[in-house]
Design goal:
With 388 residues, the protein is an alpha/beta fold. It contains 13 helices and 14 strands. It binds S-adenosyl-L-homocysteine and iron/sulfur cluster.
């Protein structure tokens, strides 16, 4: 913003704010990066060179991008940056699960979890700090909504996970991250543009080259955004259903009051139909909560609801957290529910809890983050008091 009476003499003081506006190239999709190079008066093929440096080699310093001219490197360091979010903490579970609390601009924390499983390793990525949708069984919802993550903060979680294994350019054919699920904190479809740009980078060969079947967006059912997604993305789709009828889903997933089950399933079906790849199905996520949605009659009703719907079903036994009175069902209750669906001909998996010792399970993420933040505040206050 121009201020009257402040001319050239103020130029030095203006520089810091210009630096803050440096474009973070980490979050730009290929098309956006090409446009960036056109906008700065260079050639669009530079985008390919720079993407390889950032995403394949993990390089953030333009000075190290040796196939760019010195002039361009200097120009880039003035107008741009490659800045992943910061790792606040990293925890390793005995079962190999690794969890990061990632600090984003403004001080918020989100969590990213890498879950190795045989030859695969699935990275669970956050899309927002908090969530506005307030599903009754979700600790992220209890935190309320703080802000959307930028595309750089979303793809930055993939960058950090890979970089933390020091595995850029490993060239051994073994990928650190084989699958990505947008199932961390937040509702990805409420942060549409940034999530789409980040998923494009995950699937782009010049980004992380993960197949579209292995990049999954999970939504609680923001139908208009899902209708828009089929025009722009080929990622796989998971839908958080959690109930076989509207009366119950209205209580568990409040957005259902706006977009009821029939509309949601119709939109999911249209998404699948729009994909070039005909064998696609939707993953239906169903969090089982003892005495709430885990009875045999719920399973039967679910089987009828989904009988013509192209899907596989993933049952998630509820993960308890401090602010919730809900309980996880017994193993027997989970098996009974599973059996009804299998007998009805569905492919049904039960999500095993991973990273229990580091609280990395679904819905447990934020409670720990918030707690840790408060603990950090307490430590800070204690330190301030003792040094006063
Ligand atoms: N907002 C998106 C993605 C993040 S939630 C969505 O709702 O789909 C990722 C998955 O974890 C969702 O299926 C969600 O319902 C589930 N989940 C959230 N809290 C949970 C808890 N306490 N126990 C088990 N699953 C939970
Ligand atoms: Fe938000 Fe998903 Fe949690 Fe619901 S389950 S509150 S949509 S993060």
């Amino acid at each position: 913003m121009a201020v009257a009476g402040q001319g050239a003499a103020m130029a030095d003081q203006v520089i810091p704010s210009i630096q803050q506006e440096q474009t973070n190239l980490l979050g730009l999709s290929r098309a956006q990066l090409e446009q960036f190079f056109i906008d700065i008066g260079d050639k669009k093929f530079r985008a390919q060179q720079v993407m390889k440096w950032i995403h394949h080699s993990g390089v953030t310093d333009f000075a190290q991008m040796s196939n760019l001219s010195k002039g361009l490197r200097e120009k880039l360091s003035r107008v741009a940056q490659v800045r992943p979010p910061e790792i606040a903490t990293q925890q390793d579970s005995q079962d190999g699960t690794r969890k990061w609390a990632v600090r984003v601009d403004g001080g918020g924390l989100v969590e990213t979890v890498l879950i190795p499983d045989g030859n695969r390793a699935t990275l669970c990525v956050s899309s927002q700090v908090g969530c506005s949708l307030d599903c009754s069984f979700c600790s992220t919802g209890k935190q309320g909504f703080q802000r959307d993550l930028t595309a750089a903060e979303i793809i930055g979680q993939v960058w950090l996970a890979i970089n933390s294994y020091n595995a850029f350019n490993a060239g051994k054919g073994k990928r650190v991250v084989t699958n990505v699920v947008m199932m961390g904190m937040g509702e990805p479809l409420l942060n549409f543009d940034n999530v789409v740009a980040a998923m494009d980078l995950m699937m782009d060969d010049l980004g992380y080259g993960i197949s579209k079947r292995r990049v999954t967006l999970s939504t609680s059912g923001v139908v208009p955004a899902l209708d828009k997604l089929r025009e722009v993305s080929e990622a796989s789709l998971a839908v958080s259903l959690h109930a076989p009828n509207d009366a119950l889903r209205n209580k568990l997933v409040p957005i259902n009051r706006k977009y009821p089950i029939a509309r949601l399933l119709e939109s999911c079906k249209a998404y699948i139909d729009a994909q070039s790849d005909t064998k696609r199905v939707v993953t239906v996520e169903y969090t089982l909560i003892a005495g709430v949605n885990d009875q045999i009659e719920h399973a039967r009703e679910l089987a009828v609801l989904l009988q013509d719907f192209p899907c596989k079903i993933n049952l998630i036994p509820f993960n308890p957290f401090a602010q919730s009175d809900y309980k996880r069902p017994s193993g027997n209750a989970v098996s009974r529910f599973w059996q009804v669906l299998v007998d009805a001909g569905f492919i049904v998996t039960v999500r095993t809890t991973r990273g229990d010792d580091i609280d990395a399970a679904c819905g447990q993420l934020v409670g720990q983050v918030v707690d840790r933040t408060r603990r950090a505040e307490r430590y800070q206050k204690a330190a301030m008091l003792s040094s006063a």
